[in-house]
Amino acid sequence: DAKTTQPPSMDCAEGRAANLPCNHSTISGNEYVYWYRQIHSQGPQYIIHGLKNNETNEMASLIITEDRKSSTLILPHATLRDTAVYYCIVSHSSYKLIFGSGTRLLVRP
Amino acid sequence: EPEVTQTPSHQVTQMGQEVILRCVPISNHLYFYWYRQILGQKVEFLVSFYNNEISEKSEIFDDQFSVERPDGSNFTLKIRSTKLEDSAMYFCASSEAGGENTEAFFGQGTRLTVV
Predict the structure, then answer these.
(1) Is the sign of the CA dihedral B28, B34, B35, B36 positive or negative?
(2) A-B interface: how many C-beta pairs under 8 angstroms?
(3) What local confidence, expressed as pLDDT, does residue A94 receive?
(4) How far is the C-alpha of A91 from the C-alpha of A36, rounded, in Å?
(5) b/e per residue, A55-80, with b = 16+ CB within 10 A?
(6) Residues of B with CB below 8 A from A32's CB?
(7) Which residues of chain B lie closer than 8 angstroms to A42, CB-CB?
(8) How far does B14 lie from chain A, in Å, by closest CA?
(9) Which class for A35: exposed (0-12), middle (13-18), buried (19 or more C-beta within 10 A)?
């Protein structure tokens, strides 16, 4: 599975959009981009995934560049409860997820 | 909303003892997984299970570990003789399918402390 690169930490103000970047320059044609988050030591929470089209659900939007070498997870109106570690994972499926170090997002009041 | 449930939330055991961690996956899911996270470290894949067989396992999943689906709802991880280094959060996950374009859902974890 392709490797991903994420900034170790970011912060944003409550109520503002949080844009979390991810580089995955070695992604192959049939690999998906998955985003999970982990709040404290709770279980990873599925957020969204996509192949090449932009995706949106009730939690977030996923923007994937045309060359698929990078993506951005957007939390449109971040709240304090969105403070968590966010993982970008590239995989053929959810069958075996390889977690990196992720981005620690701090939402400031 | 359906969820993966794990019991117990915290387990303390003595070194050398056997421990069984229990999970109830989401009811219509067919693929089951165990992951672990040592304090301060990454979430690590241990094993995947489908059709009553291990599909894939990591190097961590040695002979001390075993998994079982004893009935139609439970999925268990057994550690035969626990070591101090087995202390970690253990997460169970499940997915509807194992192929492309599927998502896995995780439980809240069992914190295992080996003393």
Answers:
(1) positive
(2) 68
(3) 80
(4) 13
(5) beeeebbbbbeeebebbbbbbeebee
(6) 100-101
(7) 108-109
(8) 23
(9) buried
Beta-sheet strands, E only, within A1-109: 9-13, 18-23, 32-38, 45-50, 55-56, 61-64, 70-75, 84-91, 103-108
Pairwise CA distance, residues B76 & B7, whole Å:
10
Residues in chain B: 115
A44–B contact, CB cutoff 8 A: yes
Phi then psi dihedrals of residue A82, to 5 deg: -85, -5
The residues pairing with B20 across neighbouring beta strands, listed in sequence order, are B78
Min Cα separation B48/chain A (Å): 7
Q: Give the Cα separation of A13 and B11 in Å (integer).
A: 38
Plot region of A31 (φ>0 → left; ψ -120 to 50 → alpha; else → beta):
beta
Q: Does A53 touch chain B (CB under 8 A)?
A: no
- Between CA B16 and CA B12 the distance in angstroms is 12
Q: Tens digit of pLDDT for each residue in A44-101?
A: 999 999 999 899 999 999 999 999 999 999 999 999 999 999 999 999 888 889 999 9
Among the listed residues A5, A19, A93, A101, the one whose alpha carbon sits nearest the alpha carbon of residue A61: A19
pLDDT tens string B30-53: 999 999 999 999 999 999 999 999
Q: How many residues does chain A have?
A: 109
Q: Which residue has the tokens 């969820």?
A: B3
Q: How far is A28 from chain B (nearest CA, A)?
A: 13
- As separate numbers, helices (DSSP H) first and strands (DSSP E) second, chain B gives 0, 11
